[in-house]
Amino acid sequence: MSTNTPAPVITIDGPTASGKGTIASLVADRLGWAVLDSGALYRLTALSVLRSGVNADDVDAVAQLARTLNVTFDGERILLDGEDVAQAIRKEDVGNLASRIAAYQPVREALLQRQRDFRQAPGLVADGRDMGTVVFPDAPLKIFLVANVRARAERRYKQLMEKGFSVKLTDLLEDMQARDARDAGRANAPLVAAADAVTIDSSGLSIDQTVSRVLALWSERQP
Fold first, then answer.
1. Are 191 and 13 in contact, with CB atoms under 8 Å apart?
2. Residue 168 marked in a binding site
3. What is the pLDDT of residues 169-182, one digit of tens each?
4. Which family is this sequence assigned to (predicted)?
5. Does the domain formed by 9-215 have CATH 3.40.50.300?
6. 14: Cβ–Cβ under 8 A, 6 or more apart, which residues?
7. Which of 17, 31, 126, 184 is disulfide-compatible with 152, CB 3.0–4.6 A?
């Protein structure tokens, strides 16, 4: 690869619990590429807000936290100031706050370059909500991964129960519907498929089937 040619990127965008994180990780493993969980950066910022006592409505203060996050991604571990918070950032209150602050333009700007810095050879699989539209608009393959809201709520319920969290499926369903509306309706980088994205509905697909579909699409784009 020429030094002037950017590393290839596959972007996987979609609503919460569509399975994009799992699919991104597995596709990256198969290709031997790095993976970027962009949502983790917003969740880390949200966790920092909750722990610091910063007013979540103070846009500038939240953006400052985003700029100064001391974060290290180490395999399955996500270290914030040296503490593994991989489980803590998956709590629903953190996720809901992350969705709120993701609508703040200064926060998005603070995290934009940090996300782009993950683009290194041999390649990157990036998942989020605006990877294909804003962060990596030149990505050669953009996936928009969807699933019906009931299927997504059931997936998230299973994930949280397996991790020992006590949750109600009805509450998850309501939160997810509200988050979908907020993510799609925000003025800054709303959740929307890129014009050149391929939409995959994973409602009736297994994880392996979805991964195979993404890899086939990537293979089709190779010379």
1. yes
2. no
3. 999 999 888 888 88
4. Belongs to the cytidylate kinase family. Type 1 subfamily.
5. yes
6. 20, 127, 129, 143, 144, 145, 146, 147, 191
7. 17
Q: Kindly report, residue by residue over 44-63, the tens digit of the pLDDT.
A: 999 999 999 999 999 999 99
pLDDT at residue number 164: 86
The SS3 assignment for 222 reads coil
Residue whose C-alpha is closest to residue 13's, from 185, 131, 189: 131
Q: Under DSSP, is residue 83 helix (H, G, I), strand (E, B) or coil? A: strand
Nearest-angstrom CA–CA distance, 168 and 166: 7
Please give the Cα distance from 101 to 39 (Å, whole number): 12
Locate the domains of the chain by residue range. 9-215
* Residue 67, Cβ density class (10 Å: 0-12 exposed, 13-18 middle, ≥19 buried): middle
Beta bridge partners of 198: 143
Q: Which two tokens stand for residue 33?
A: 């590429």
21 is in an annotated binding site: yes
For the entire predicted model, the pTM comes to: 0.81
Residue 3 counted as an annotated binding residue: no
202 is in an annotated binding site: no
Q: Is 14 annotated as a binding residue?
A: yes
Answer for the pair 189, 134: CB distance below 8 angstroms, yes or no. yes
| Cβ 168 vs Cβ 38: under 8 Å | no
